[in-house]
Specification:
about 30% helix, Gfo/Idh/MocA_domain, about 325 residues, alpha/beta, Gfo/Idh/MocA-like_OxRdtase_N, six-stranded parallel sheet, 2 domains, binds NADP nicotinamide-adenine-dinucleotide phosphate, nucleotide binding, GFO_IDH_MocA-like_dom, Rossmann fold, Gfo/Idh/MocA family oxidoreductase, Dihydrodipicolinate Reductase, domain 2, ten-stranded mixed sheet
């Protein structure tokens, strides 16, 4: 396969803001078709973003025999239906995070993917970046001793009342949109699920606009995740990995740039490593998928390997949180 022809479901902001620029950077792939609920919108999107074909439905993208792989950047509640439908084609799929807004539906997808041997990835771009790979290597090699705490933040300012994230029926809310990140980071490092959760969700109308949670993990020394996410604060993804012998600090955990570093603090020294080479956030993820499709690499981070534990831990948090109404106009936690 010389060129991977991508089919894109929907004219999403993340498709033109992150996926397509990275696809151009990777090379070896082409944006072949975009499908939208509205043909005119698909045509404009295709023209503005260099997609070769446009059509007026998502199904038309799945039905296009020329497409080699699908990207699903739809609102969260549509991931289930379209990931399931895409799996029936037997082609690789990159579905946006969170895979679904419920454990039950994620279980279904993971079961379906296992049965079909599907190549299905959830679009956590950080998993494929050298920054995360270095953090994980340092932790597994014992550079900070035993891991005792992860402090994970993902705050952002959500502008616009029309955003799909404000709609409960679309599986909106800060925990689905942002909380999945620190939970996923933690589950990638842990072999077990949390055994205890304390959590608080601050609601704005029908969805959580901010969530604070503490999750503890079983073991000889208890590991804990302390996380906070919010739609109402300055952008911040600072993450700390605290161990018995030191700690790792990462300023831009999920979309790092060339100036962002991994900071390792040990007893008598601080080491800063700049791991990103200037590539866009989605570049390593798309590059990996292309390599797998060309049989140049074994697939890693498939949903069948790493998707379920995150969904299980998230369900536990949801089941335990106490609810508070937004008390302040800025909605701070
Ligand atoms: N991995 C990341 O770093 C990252 C970053 C941001 C967002 N995301 C994820 O990407 C997905 C899309 O987010 P986004 O911010 O790009 O969303 P968006 O700009 O609102 O786009 C969503 C697209 O879905 C389609 N759609 C179908 N039903 C819809 C409905 N009822 N209301 C609105 N749009 C509908 C629309 O395309 P048509 O009208 O053309 O059909 C729309 O363009 C979410 O799952 C989000 O969590 C991931």
């Amino acid at each position: 396969m010389d060129t991977v022809r991508w089919g894109i479901l929907g004219t999403a902001g993340i498709a033109h803001g992150a996926f397509l620029p990275a696809l151009r950077e990777v090379q070896g792939g082409v944006a072949w078709r975009v499908g939208s609920r509205d043909l005119g919108r698909a045509q404009v999107f295709a023209r503005e973003n260099g997609v070769l074909h446009a059509s007026g439905s998502y199904q038309s993208v799945l039905d296009d025999d020329q497409v080699d792989a699908f990207y699903i950047p739809l609102p969260n509640h549509l991931h289930y239906e379209w990931a399931m439908a895409a799996m029936n084609t037997g082609k690789p799929i990159l579905c946006e995070k969170p895979l679904t807004g419920s454990l039950e539906r994620t279980r279904d997808i993971v079961r379906g993917a296992r049965e079909r041997g599907a190549l299905l990835w959830e679009a956590y771009a950080f998993q494929f970046q050298p920054q995360w790979q270095r953090v994980r290597q340092l932790i597994t090699e014992g550079a900070i001793g035993e891991l005792e705490e992860i402090h994970g933040t993902f705050n952002t300012q959500l502008h616009g009342e029309q955003d799909v994230r404000w709609v409960k029926a679309y599986d909106g809310g800060a925990f689905n949109d942002l909380g999945c990140y620190p939970v996923h980071v933690t589950q990638l490092l842990m072999k077990s699920l949390p055994d205890h959760v304390v959590a608080r969700a601050q609601m704005r109308e029908e969805v959580d606009e901010a969530v604070w949670a503490a999750l503890t993990y079983p073991g000889d020394a208890t590991m804990q995740l302390l996380m906070n996410v919010s739609f109402c604060r300055r952008y911040d993804t600072f993450t700390r990995f605290v161990g018995t012998e030191g700690e790792i600090r990462v300023d831009k955990m999920y979309h790092p740039g060339v100036r962002d570093c991994v900071e390792l603090l040990q007893k008598d020294r601080v080491i800063r490593e700049f791991t990103m080479k200037g590539q866009l956030s989605f570049t390593d993820m798309i590059s990996h998928i292309h390599q797998v499709m060309r049989h140049e690499a074994e697939p890693t981070q498939l949903v069948t390997e790493v998707g379920l534990a995150t969904a299980e831990a998230m369900e536990l948090v949801r089941s335990q949180w106490t609810v508070a109404d937004s008390a302040r106009s800025d909605g701070g936690t």
